Amino acid sequence: MLIKRKELKIPLIQGGMGVGVSLGNLAGHVAKCGALGVISTADTGFMEPDFWKNPIKANIRGLVKEIKKAQEIAKGKGMIAINAMVATTYYAESVIAAVKAGIDCIISGAGLPLDLPKYVKGADTAIAPIVSSGKAAQVICRMWDKRYQVIPDFIVIEGSEAGGHLGFTKEELLEKKAKPLITILQEVLGIIKPFEEKYQKKIPVFVAGGIYDRKDIETCTEAGAAGVQIATRFIATKECDASEAYKQAFLDAREEDIQIVQSPVGMPGRALRTPLITRLEKEKRIAPAKCVSCLHACDRRTTPYCITNALIEAVKGNYEEGLFFCGSNAWKLQEIISVEELMDQLTN
Predict the structure, then answer these.
(1) Which 3 state secondary structure label does DSSP give 304?
(2) Long-range contacts made by residues 141-144, C-beta under 8 angstroms, separation at least 24?
(3) How many Å apart are CA 220 and CA 203, to the nearest integer?
(4) What are the tens digits of pLDDT across the range 263-277?
(5) CA-to-CA distance for 77 and 65, rounded, in angstroms?
(6) Containing H/E element for 169?
(7) Which residue from 29, 56, 153, 243 has the highest number of Cβ atoms inside 10 Å of its Cβ?
(8) Could you tell me if residue 277 is left (phi over 0), alpha (psi between -120 and 50 degrees) or otherwise beta?
């Protein structure tokens, strides 16, 4: 498969996971296997000494370090992308810095990335929106076509079984009324046809959300997907950038431990039930002790909790105070294996 004139031998994307779960080490090893490794831009600089004082500078500095690390590990194999959330206050800076660092792709969600093309103008960088509906795909394709005379180089559909922030209402998720992933795929494939014809260019569509094994992958590709995006399974790898305690939390998780939570971003999300979730149900709000103004939609004076702090504590392995985002099949994880072993299970 060609994406922006670069070959992707294995049509599999390792989903971006933040804070600090998918950084340069994981992304680099995934790319080394011939797939698309993804670095999350969510507070990439959380380990920088000046993070709480100069968060944007620290995040950009940390992001460039992680991109270089991934590139060194991959040694020109596969592709490397960043996952940039529109909802973050440093979105534009992250994209611009990644392009300058030679990133292969920008994958963008947590909002509609309507202005993404202007940040990569003149660069040989592929751009891809994350959508959860045919309507979102149509809005983005129309806007990019009208404003910038471009269309997506590929599209990622995240279904209702995915982890992290989800593009569905809380009611749809809790009552299991969200459209099935394959249904959304068929809608998107139909919507992009006129744009493919106009630009004489194929738009590969990858699907994500609850995809666990090779059988799931085959089901999706037989339905018309060009490939898949898998995130949660890469947590249980030796190369995952998170702490061992973070990984162990997933190995210990049961199916009933996975639930829908409300994020300060305004979107529902899927995560492990931890003491933090229980405490929030009782107290309703845990006022932030400090703030880096990471999200446009978050107001320190009213936010129910600091998602940045919760995600940082999680990646460190603090089960009591951490927020552990996950896909619906996280409870199936049983052992830590290498990225190479996982890729072999998924593709051979």
Answers:
(1) coil
(2) 141/191, 141/192, 141/195, 143/114, 144/114, 144/116, 144/117
(3) 16
(4) 876 778 899 999 999
(5) 19
(6) none
(7) 29
(8) alpha
Band of the pLDDT at 246, cuts 50, 70, 90?
very high
Q: Tokens 């072993």: give the residue.
A: 341
Structure tokens at 279: 């405490």
Per-residue DSSP letters for 94-127?
HHHHHHHTT-SEEEEESS--TTHHHHSTTS--EE
Domain ranges of the chain: 2-242+335-347, 244-332
DSSP per position, 208-260:
ESS--SHHHHHHHHHTT-SEEEE-GGGGGBTT-SS-HHHHHHHHT--GGGEEE
Q: What confidence tens digit (pLDDT) does each residue in 249-298 have?
A: 999 999 999 999 988 767 788 999 999 999 999 998 888 777 677 666 66
Task: Please give the angle made by the CA atoms of 324, 328 and 329, to the nearest 5 degrees.
Answer: 100
Enter the CATH code of domain 2-242+335-347.
3.20.20.70
227-230 and 12-14 strand pairing: parallel
Look up tokens 């129910």; give the residue. 304
What six digits make up the tokens of 79? Answer: 């592709």
Q: Is 189 exposed, middle or buried (0-12, 13-18, 19+ CB in 10 A)?
A: buried
Judged on CB neighbours under 10 Å (0-12, 13-18, 19+), 299 is exposed
Q: Which of 229, 188, 200, 224 is nearest to 212 (CA)?
A: 229
Whether the pTM exceeds 0.85: the reply is: yes
CB of 291 closer than 8 Å to CB of 43:
no
